[in-house]
Amino acid sequence: MPPTELLFRAEPYTRTCEARVSAVDGEAVRLDRTVFYPVGGGQPGDTGVLRTDDGTEFAVRDTRKGEGADDILHLIDPDTPPPAPESRVVAELDWERRYRHMRMHTCLHLLSAVIDAPVTGGQLSAEKGRLDFDVDTKLEKSAVQDELNALIARDLPVAARWMSDEALAAQPELVKTMRVKPPTGQGQVRVINVEGIDLQPCGGTHVARTGEIGPVIVRKIESKGRHNRRVTLAFRDPS
After folding, report:
1. Residues contacting residue 167 through CB under 8 Å, at least 6 positions apart
2. pLDDT at 185
3. SS3 state of residue 123
4. CA distances from 77 to 4, 18, 22, 28, 164 (A)
5. Do the Cβ atoms of 147 and 131 come closer than 8 Å?
6. To which H or E segment does residue 5 belong?
7. If DSSP codes are grouped into helix, strand and coil, which group holds residue 51?
8. Measured in whole angstroms, how far is the alpha carbon of residue 207 from the centre of its chain?
């Protein structure tokens, strides 16, 4: 199966693209190129629609990885006849949902800079996000919230770039997650750089500047074991 061109990697703000249906397997539609991010790294898969030339729309209810990293499955309603292979479609994101994912994902990177401890898990949605930290000291909710919002307000640039496997191996401190290691063996690894604050491997989608995140609140800090603290965030403005 030929790989899908992953437009979201270099162009996370692109909302639509023209594409060709390269294959159909039941509810899974493969395209030759896509703006849809597949679930991974704690970030949900994108939703949206595929629209054919005659105006027929196929709702994409989830996006997942197939057999390889560049094999993207756009999952439609299994009871709906799928678009025909080789047909042309316009792939269009539910942009509001995706953009909230981008804002929260970048915010979690900032949180990992505020709390200097290994990350044991994490997850985000359009409404909230959380990280688990391997730390046994008490975390003050107000202090974490104030420092996090201060970084957001600095409106720092955020950019994706690539780092060689060798360069990453020489800087093991960049890998903050204890249970999930970045994919190596392909020669290079994608990293997200929040200028002057954070640099770590990540395949997700992010905003271009921290100011786009907007103010956030620390909803709660929970103990999830002797050396595990869960910090849950939410956007201050629910819209």
Report:
1. none
2. 62
3. strand
4. 21, 21, 18, 9, 40
5. no
6. strand 5-6
7. strand
8. 10
Dig out the tokens for 123 from the structure: 């997850």
CB atoms within 10 A of CB 95: 15
Structural domains of the chain, with CATH: 5-93 (2.40.30.130), 98-235 (3.30.980.10)
State the Cα angle at 170 between 164 and 175, rounded to 5°: 80
The Cα–Cα gap between 168 and 119 comes to 18
Residue with tokens 């949900």: 44
**Amino acid at position 164, single letter:** S
Q: 90-105, pLDDT tens digit by residue?
A: 999 999 999 999 999 9
Dihedral Cα 181, 183, 184, 188, nearest 10 deg = -120
Look over the chain and give the mean of its residue pLDDT values, rounded to a whole number.
93
Q: Which two tokens stand for residue 29?
A: 């539609």
The whole-angstrom separation of Cα 221 and Cα 140 is 8
Phi, psi at 142, each rounded to 5°: -65, -35
- Supply 219's token pair: 């909803």
This prediction has a pTM of 0.94
Report residue 104: phi and psi, to 5°. -70, -35
